[in-house]
Description:
Helices cover about 25% and strands about 30% of the residues. The protein is of the alpha+beta class. The strands form two sheets. Strands 5, 6, 7, 8, 9, 10, 11, 12, 13, 14 and 15 form an eleven-stranded antiparallel sheet that branches. Strands 2-1-3-4 form a four-stranded parallel sheet, sandwiched between helices.
Amino acid sequence: MNHLSSGDALPSELKLGVLINTQSGRNRTGMQALDALLVSHPDIPVERPTAPAATAASLAALASRGVTVLAVCGGDGTVQQVLNVILAPASPFAHVPALAILPGGTTNMIAHDLNDASRPTAVLETILKHFHGKTLSSRLTTRPVIRLSGGDAAVPAYGLFFGAAGIYEATMDNRSGIDRLGVRDGLGPALRILAILFKIAIGRDPFAPTPMQIAIDGRAYGEKATVVLLASTMNKLSMGLKPFWGDGQGSIRLTLVFEASRSLLSAVWLAVRSRPHKLLTPANGYDSLCADRIELAFDGGCVLDGENFQASRARPILLESIGNLQFLRG
């Protein structure tokens, strides 16, 4: 695997390159402003892969141009594709580039976690301002990377957000319904949350529980009928939600909701405020903690930054924190 930076400094030689996923949700509706900005900077190499299979070749082309700072315009799935290439043992980059994430997809949790600006052009304008002003290091931040292995993953995959049980079910429902309506960014998750809250309010379970054997940092956590499992290294999720209230030394924030959890509607409100509460305890069906290694044995689907995987009892999913990746705030 390409080694991650310590995160305290950018490379001494800075070369900016841009990768645009032209098939990402927001990018399909028009990129005139971004294109105009790039035309005014002809020294910046730009690659526009038209399919996921072309991403590796586009990144290799940018690496051959000496790119050390990579602006990625796409959604969470595009970011995940990029991470799978630049962190692979056969990465075309000698050193992992610093990433700027431009929100060009249907779901842009990573971009919105990192950036002050909400439009792709505004994010790139901020990066260019500091790049040319030689103050780019002032925009430097880091996020730990999750490596997923096991299940049906042929090779390790990398990302910042993982979901299983109800999170996977909600993601699949979203793709078959809300995404097809052309809903972008926070509105899609907002509609999904409202649908879940409506089910709770009328006394229905929002998701069927998934039996799951869980181990945390090498210690058995137990067999749990899990309704929701989400793990992330981001500071906030869609709509600024922070459904993590546990502590500990690990880099991966993990939240679990189990079958027969008490006062679910109140718990949802408390959980998204990221504050401990006497209701949010394992005895009541809720837990939140931090870890560096999470092993999940279950039969069902899961998602890592938009990419689907299938797990089984015979082939558990393993999530590991592998170090910090450099990002630039736009």
